[in-house]
Design goal:
Elements: H1 3-15, H2 19-33, H3 45-60, H4 69-80, H5 82-97, H6 99-102, E1 111-114, H7 125-134, E2 138-142, E3 153-154, H8 155-166, H9 176-193, H10 200-225, E4 229-232, H11 238-249, E5 253-257, E6 284-287, H12 291-294, E7 303-306, E8 327-332, H13 338-351, E9 355-360, H14 368-374, E10 382-384, H15 390-395, E11 399-402, H16 406-413, E12 418-421, H17 430-434, E13 438-441, H18 444-450, H19 470-486
Parallel strand pairs: 1-2, 1-4, 2-3, 4-5, 5-6, 6-7, 8-9, 8-11, 9-10, 11-12, 12-13
Helix pairs in contact: 1-9, 3-10, 5-8, 7-19, 8-10, 10-11, 13-18
Length: 487
């Protein structure tokens, strides 16, 4: 058997349930081929395709399942109404670049805000505090997957319009040396994972063309609006990166608002060993607490600022009315590993009939398969959460259980002990586990034995700081705007 065959079998054996090993593959590939600096016709394609490829590999290898089921259903619905959304995008684009409006000084919008993906009671909570400070001075871009934000411009509608209007402007032809690099990447994937049907060349061509189209459209908006500061959420999304590139071309300062967990193994943010800045990456990240930038190798030159968790004010004290005879464990599900978490929870319920178990689906999960599976069991100590707010579940829980959801960290901030399953993604919580702030278990049996021993305790790290007040945010925002003007 040749060396490549041995490598393939070894990789499959090691990586079948190991996100860390997949990350190590990416980092080695990037070092060997200088992919962070790879430039094709003024575009950095690897930066754009990195997270998409990582997700494809980990799903193809059955490490995780594809997340955001309900989001995909909503996107399918939008595709069915493509003509309607394209027309909406046309109208919104014309409103944004209208000379009649923009020649009026009072209508200048020095700020732009790119919303996060989910809402709570009709509000996108991550960007709400920023919007509150700059209201009337900001363009608000809506990219939520579960509702339409009032007064915001639809990113999906603008994308449809840009694609229709500007697609003829751009064609992508790769030179031989770029094709050779694509072939090398494909070969390395095949040798390491035995996956040989991912067409890297096609991916690169497609994403470059889409990037150029979207960048052109968004640059028209930022130029006409004279935007100075662009607040983004989820900067590693390829569409967001096109908007970032457009804003940066217009001399904007880019600030990311942390919306979820990031770590050494979250490739949207983690760039270990990089000696230079990363294209399309924010200039600053405003974080929940110091733990996040301290535990993640961000690119050189990126500034970080702690502004706290915007929903901290929603976390309330335990309500005496929730007092109960049995201890309650709240499982926080996630789209990528939800079925495995469900299996763990039902095993725990079978082993510990003296404890109540509450299963909370992720907002983007389809809950029906779980309800179907639950009918096979007759557990009186297992139920699904019926609360619209996770904080209501926190209020009646004694222990939080999951793998790497941001909600686990919220639970810590609430003063609840957190236990975790050693499932794919547990790598993200490694520093918290090593610090003793989170306890991780190999299997449900060992966890079930120790649930009585889990206690609240003082945390080693600052995961979530109190939310910054309006005055503090206003000072920070004005400072960023001054930095933008200074160039």
């Amino acid at each position: 058997m040749n060396q490549d065959s041995n490598l393939s079998k070894t990789a499959k054996k090691i990586i079948s349930s190991d996100i860390e090993a997949v990350c190590e593959f990416f980092w080695a590939l990037e070092r060997d081929l200088d992919l962070a600096g790879w430039k094709v016709d003024c575009v950095y394609p690897w930066i754009l395709v990195r997270m998409e490829l990582f997700l494809e590999l980990t799903t193809r290898m059955n490490i995780v399942t594809y997340p955001h089921h309900l989001h995909r259903l909503r996107l399918q619905e939008k595709r069915r109404r493509k003509t309607e959304y394209t027309e909406r995008g046309k109208k919104e684009f014309k409103r944004l670049v209208s000379p009649f409006i923009l020649d009026t000084f009072l209508n200048k919008k020095p700020y732009a805000i790119w919303a996060a993906g989910r809402t709570s009671h009709g509000v996108e909570p991550i960007s709400a505090s920023i919007l509150n400070v700059v209201r009337g001075k900001a363009i608000y871009f809506d990219r939520t997957m579960d509702a339409d934000l009032k007064g915001a411009f639809s990113v999906d509608a603008l994308k449809y319009y840009f694609t229709k209007e500007f697609r003829q402007k751009y064609d992508v032809m790769l030179g031989n040396h770029h094709i050779a690099r694509c072939v090398t990447i494909s070969e390395r994937i095949k040798n390491s994972f035995d996956i040989d049907d991912i067409d890297i060349q096609e991916k690169i061509c497609t994403i470059i063309k889409r990037f150029k189209i979207l960048k052109y459209g968004f640059s028209k908006i930022f130029e006409k609006q004279r935007t100075e500061v662009f607040f983004v959420v989820n900067s590693y999304n390829a569409t967001t990166m096109a908007a970032i590139a457009a804003a940066r071309e217009c001399k904007c300062r880019i600030v990311e608002l942390q919306h979820g967990l990031f770590s050494r193994f979250q490739l949207g943010y983690s760039w270990p060993g990089q000696n230079s800045s990363i294209p399309y990456f924010p200039d600053e990240i405003w974080c929940f607490g110091r733990y996040w930038p301290d535990s993640t190798p961000l690119p050189p030159g990126v500034k970080t600022q702690t502004i706290g968790f915007p929903m901290s004010g929603s976390i309330r004290k335990l309500d005496p009315k929730y007092a109960q005879d049995k201890k309650r464990v709240l499982t926080i599900s996630q789209g990528t590993i939800g079925h495995q978490l469900f299996q763990w929870t039902t095993e725990l319920a079978a082993i510990r009939p003296d404890i109540n178990f509450l299963f909370r689906c992720h907002p983007t999960e389809n809950s029906e398969p779980y309800h179907t599976l639950a009918r096979r069991y007759d557990f009186r100590n297992f139920e699904f959460s019926g609360c619209s707010s996770i904080y209501d579940d926190f209020a009646c829980a004694d222990i939080i259980f999951g793998v790497y959801s941001t909600a686990l960290i919220e639970g810590l901030n609430f003063g609840l002990p957190v236990v975790a399953a050693k499932l794919p993604g547990i790598e993200h919580l490694r520093p918290a586990i090593e610090a003793g702030d989170v306890v991780a278990y190999e299997d449900a049996t060992s966890m079930a034995r120790e649930l009585d021993l889990v206690r609240r305790h003082a945390l080693r790290y600052e995961y979530v700081a109190p939310p910054a007040g309006v005055a503090c945010l206003r000072t920070l925002i004005e400072g960023v705007r001054s930095a933008s003007r200074a160039g």
